[in-house]
Design brief:
Order of helices and strands: HHEEHEHHHE
Number of helices: 6
Strand order of the largest sheet: 2-1-3-4
Distance between the termini: 65 Å
Bound molecules: zinc ion
């Protein structure tokens, strides 16, 4: 676009903006609009409060959990099968890259303040599988001890890994464990 055209367009756009702002002012003096705007403010406040509460709840959960840890066969990070806390969130250089209210942001903040230790398996696996097995186990035996969880988990993971099954059986096993039907992280190993 030529300079002259650009200047014309600039003037026109400025005028449009002015008109729009005048219309806004007129609307803003209307009672209903004012009530609507107050609701928007209130909504924003409540959403923020919920995000803050979720952060606090997660902190409490992570702190109260006696972690049972597996190693991820992809990436090598550690992850708790009970509360889902992972230690690969620290790879972000700065919290600015992760929204503070995202789960990763919350984990990152938590791990800056607290140690991440617990019962360690000596197994590398897909943490999603370990988590699914734990959830099933916990549903059947809600009072099971961490040591028993650890033992059961190691046996189950290695068993699944070494017993060959066809694709159909794998899919139905994934369904039973509430994993994606095309879940493929069945292999676990000692390290
Ligand atoms: Zn945990």
């Amino acid at each position: 676009m030529e300079l002259e055209d650009l200047l014309k367009k600039n003037k026109l756009t400025e005028k449009q903006l002015e008109r729009l702002q005048e219309l806004k002012k007129i609307l803003e003096s209307n009672d209903v609009v004012q009530r609507y705007m107050a609701l928007l403010d209130e909504e924003k406040k409540l959403r923020n409060e919920l995000l803050n509460l979720r952060r606090e709840i997660k902190f409490e959960e992570y702190e109260a959990c006696s972690h049972v840890l597996v190693y991820s066969s992809r990436g090598g990070h550690r992850e708790c099968v009970k509360c889902g806390l992972r230690d690969d969130v620290g790879v972000y250089n700065s919290i600015l890259e992760v929204p503070w209210h995202s789960i990763d942001g919350i984990m990152y903040e938590f791990l800056k303040m607290y140690d991440f230790s617990g019962l360690d398996t000596d197994i590398a696996c897909d943490p999603a599988l370990a988590h699914a097995i734990y959830k099933r186990l916990q549903a059947v035996h809600p009072k099971i001890s961490d040591e028993e969880i650890l033992k059961y988990l190691q046996n189950a993971l290695l068993h699944i890994s070494t017993i060959p099954v066809n694709e159909e059986r794998k899919q139905s096993r994934a369904r039973r464990l509430s994993l994606n039907p095309d879940f493929s992280g069945w292999d676990s190993r000692h390290f």
